[in-house]
């Protein structure tokens, strides 16, 4: 029984819809789009013809593009949002399986090099409507206020052209929209409004973090997460199935797919799935629309404004691939900074074995966090800070494939050593860092000679740590090692090579020579071309970036709408 | 390494939960029989003779109090059963409330059918024991919350042993004991501990309502009051409690219909709460077909009737104050 | 090295298949995977196939008495046949399919050069010796055509073989993972707690208790 208006989310996905393949046939067409909250159902969608000049063409529907599309549509402008990936209905399309769910990742070819080549795909790139938020770990943290002015206040990185108090208001709004489940009071930073849902019960892996933090004399807290702890509309509360980073099949996770995009559709936005944008067209210094590949052929959508929101690899790739006679170095690239200052975040971990059964596969992976080292700038004793930047660390819950791969690649185990060590899976807990790496121009996205299935040059991603990054890694690993041991961990070992998140490559700033876009995410060179995703970050801070990307997107929408009035 | 495969033998083992249920039921039956046969009104022995009207009032109030403790005991039985099953009876003491609440449930049911004005020593003893068990349980839960990572934080108040829950057992015990005392009291001028029975009971049940409201408030805060109906158990009972306190200040014999309606409203809310919580279970992922998770993780079905229990106690108090037997 | 144990006696994650822990999509996906037999081969040629099978056995050895071993080589073959990719490759590496063909051929050639027999004909000791050389990047013959054996070993062999093995329910049983979980997730998340539908670990001397519990996970 479904009671209208009350949002009965108890749909039991026992019966999938036959003959409907979102990975090969677009779902958002014929005036309708999938209803992501129901099995086999649809919602009406306003559509535009290619020849019709829409107000905004948005490339990407993730944290940046999806959020922006929603607010722009709600502001009354016509919006078409493109995504290269499929339009999933989580209840019927998501399996509880690590291999299968790799369908959520951007697995088109990319080439990595540099001194510390990045791992792409699974942990940082999404290819689905909703973008990476469909498989993100839902950690919803705010920047420390000083991070918006690190150059001025802390002596490193670059200043954001934004004021933290204004950002604080937008954070409030995102947290409300996503019904973030967080602690009753947050131990760090200036006052913030109470979260709209209470924090989740923490699992044993998170309690390990708590024990360690208490032993080390620092604060910890249940992590603010974008998965509801009490019903919200059609979303049931989290059932702690632990597959969060492989897509949430219950819709408890407030990904953009189930939060902002349904609102966007309702407000009249059009979403085009399986639509790969390959080039932005310009004429007389203005963007005129986008070339996109859908249903077997290249098409051209006319638009008054274009927003690029493809995340920090695809965004510069598209801008560079759109080079033409007018802009031979790529669009918005008069500063030469497009693709440069690529920033990831450290994602090193320490792992240990415990006497107790931990079974960290239950519940969201990062249920507890300490942001101590984001707010302590000096440190003391063996933990004096000898580097710029900060880090937070969180509890972890790897599933078998990921865990086995970690044991093989980072711990160097194979053969009998691997399979017998894997039997301690249920007794393992770990701490994993999200740390602030420095922006460096040599870390960059360029175009390779190789072409992908659309015939477009693929991205070459060059990445190397600087000395400051390495010093931070050492500090974090050492601290977490002690914390994990203090919590009762034995045979503690380091996973020293992992990274996560993508930022930079089209940074915002206060001048056209030192940045690609202005505070409103508008490119300095082309007045009707915007970039709205993690690419605009001048610095990354020591927290997961999604909440900040979304807050910036809401602000951008407000600024665009204000200008139109 | 040799793996065992394919279950060949027929399982003869009985699930521990079944054993526990049997023990609890057995203890309840024993209590029932130990409490003796109920005697119908009018056949009171002992040579005491009071005015029939007064006796009718105290007997009715006593029965009502037994209804109250029945409701509370049943709520505790199922709630602690569910919650301690969730906690996998990790500590053996976790079996206690199930056995004790079965015993007090039997004693209260027995009392509920007993129209005799005289008290029963077995019932009296059992109720007192239950009251004490609840207090000990409260101590246990408070200790358990404090020793968790984070100590007395909201997080632990939400998710570790619910600190207020064992008090429901104490309330059941206290109301049960009072039932016996009322049976023994002078029907013309019933007193409890030297105070007028009706008034002191009214104030006591008002306090109990406030306590139960706190517990519901904490847990509904955990649920972020996501449904407006979740505000009802934190607004209605305090109002009703205020009416009860006002009732205690009114002269004896005055009409108490306002407070009475308040009590009935809270009672109804307690029962209606079960339906709301049932809807809450349906809203969880997988709904009722995933009952093994959702009955435990969802809103607790047996919890709301503890409000009804306390409210029935309030009705008994009103009867004693008004000095007339309510027909409903 | 710790011995491999029967740590979760009687546990079979497939017993939960028709219960609330598996949704329709999961059943469909696992059905497809379980249909892959030990000799299902679409991508590798015959020479590569025998090398692949021996290689898989060295990376994730399985008990000799396991009646129905995980078809690791076939699962890797399936990944390559369906061209399921990681989403990146090191600039020094060719694409995934090419890297595998090249790497298997090179391993075989190195085996012949050093031990005078094909890789799959070697004993476990000799195979491991070769793999250890690859692990360190010490196999540098012309047969590698410039592909670093170290990268091949770490990024292709370890990653693909290990993930293939732990994609299989038999491997999940071995490590006591709860397996698919939707719509039903988990309730008990504290230290040393398990839901009745999770694997029970055999504590020394109490193996029978765990065995009994594990027979009940599918209920």
From TrEMBL, chain A:
According to its UniProt record, which protein family does this protein belong to? Answer: Belongs to the GMC oxidoreductase family.
Query: Spans of biased composition, class Basic and acidic residues?
Result: 12-32
Keywords, sorted A to Z? FAD, Flavoprotein, Oxidoreductase
User: Which intervals hold domain Glucose-methanol-choline oxidoreductase N-terminal?
Assistant: 124-344
Coiled coil location: none
Domain Glucose-methanol-choline oxidoreductase C-terminal positions = 439-553
What broad taxonomic lineage does this protein's source fall under? Bacteria, Pseudomonadati, Pseudomonadota, Alphaproteobacteria, Hyphomicrobiales
The name on file for this protein is Glucose dehydrogenase
State the InterPro entries in the record. Answer: FAD/NAD-bd_sf, GMC_OxRdtase_N, GMC_OxRtase_C
Can you name one GO molecular function term for this protein?
oxidoreductase activity, acting on CH-OH group of donors
Cite the residue spans of the region called Disordered.
1-35
Tell me the superkingdom of the source. Answer: Bacteria
From TrEMBL, chain B:
Membrane-spanning ranges: 12-35, 94-113, 125-145, 157-179, 200-218, 230-249, 261-282, 302-321
Which superkingdom heads the taxonomic lineage of this protein's source?
Bacteria
What's in the keyword line of the UniProt record? Answer: Membrane, Transmembrane, Transmembrane helix
> Mind telling me what this protein is named?
Uncharacterized protein
UniProtKB/TrEMBL annotation, chain C:
GO MF annotation list: oxidoreductase activity
EC main group? oxidoreductase
- What is the top-level taxon of the source organism? Bacteria
- What EC number(s) does its UniProt record assign? 1.-.-.-
Q: Which Pfam families match?
A: Gluconate_2-dh3
Q: InterPro entries this protein is in?
A: Gluconate_2DH_su3
Instruction: Please list where the region (Disordered) is annotated.
Output: 198-219
Q: What keywords tag this UniProt record?
A: Oxidoreductase
Q: Where is the composition biased (Basic and acidic residues)?
A: 198-209
Protein name in the entry:
Gluconate 2-dehydrogenase subunit 3 family protein
